[in-house]
Amino acid sequence: MRFLVRDRILGIGDDWWIEDEHGRKVYLVDGKAMRLRDTFELKDAHGHVLIDIHQKMFALRDTMVIERDGEALARIKRKRLSLLRNHYRVSLVDGTELDVSGKIMDREFAVEYDGELLAVISRRWLSVRDTYGVDVVREDADPALLIAVAVCVIHLAEKEGEED
């Protein structure tokens, strides 16, 4: 499954559609303005909220939290002892950890579980300017979760880039 995401600096209050490979609008990323913390909602094409994404308020390092139906699903933060700045850990509430690594700012990275590829985020296959693809490799993977992970990692990397 391949999804096309319009690439823009993720700002508070920004909304944008994510399309499937056939150009159908599948998900809406709804940036929430006027909040104390960075907040986004991932909605389906009918406007139903599938995933809430927000920045954890009181954390030593920038951390994004993904929730589904009001329940925590995952936490995302940059790996502590990584030599590369483009290395993030996704800790799911069931104890599973996903690894995100690559060139985040260039939109060329992968999401893996225990060495197995789950999704590839890339601009390489696309001719549409200012767009990157989220290619969900595993059939049994949760595309909404993997898209939310990509949104979080890019948001964290952009925020970190602003601070340098």
From TrEMBL:
InterPro entries membership: LOR, LOR_sf, Tubby-like_C
One Pfam family named in its UniProt record: LOR
Gene3D superfamilies noted in UniProt: LURP1-related
Membrane-spanning parts: none
Domain of life the protein comes from: Bacteria
Record family assignment: Belongs to the LOR family.
Name of the featured protein: LURP-one-related family protein
